[in-house]
Task: structure prediction
Amino acid sequence: MFMEERQKDIVRKINETGRILVTEIQEFYQVSADCARRDLRVLESRGLLQRTHGGAIAVTSGQNYPPATYNPIDLKEIRTDYLAVAKRAVAYIESEDVIYITTSLVGYYMAENLPEDIPVTVLTNSVTIAEVLRKKMNISVILLGGEMSHRGHCHDFYTIQMVKNIRINKAFLSHTALSPDFGASLHDSAGVAFGKAVMENSSVNIGLYPSKKTGKNSVHSVCRITDYDILITDNNVSEDFMLQVKEMGVEIEAVDVKGA
Result:
């Protein structure tokens, strides 16, 4: 089989199954591991797949934004990649910490999995996350208020003024997309100033970006990758993305989705 035929067949298999391993390419086409990885690099450069640790996954076309009334509580299925990232983030929380939790799905999963044996103060601008935490007796909740969006969270002038008056130990943040060149970005400019205010008032900023969000750009930049102290993603992340982040001097972890 010629190289072009092999690469075309690799793309077909990925589009059918959603993923492929380097070891599978070796077995299917009787090639070396180096040859298999070279094929994946070439195909990724053409935008036909996304490389991961040990293989590749299919890419989605376009940027899908949630509806205006989207709320994490409405999701019926568990997204294991987001859950894995959330559980790893929870491990960074220590007794007496004052933390900020992002309004996104990964933040919702964090709230559900916060430890119940240590005292923690949680800042949130999400009424959904506040409701999750309301009955946890070890958690003190500071609800950052203001004009509420239809998604159930606040990020206006009043919300920003509140967060500027609170010192945060650790901020757990997640935005629409994250790339080495454009950093963290959002599709809605309304959240940019709030995100910057949280990071400025936090001693440690931890970015929570499941692999689906990495290597992509949205519209409005919030911060550079180097503004994060730690990044947490899942093990479906592109090898190139991991290498670029490490070269920028930022600590990054890729957690196993199967462990969620």
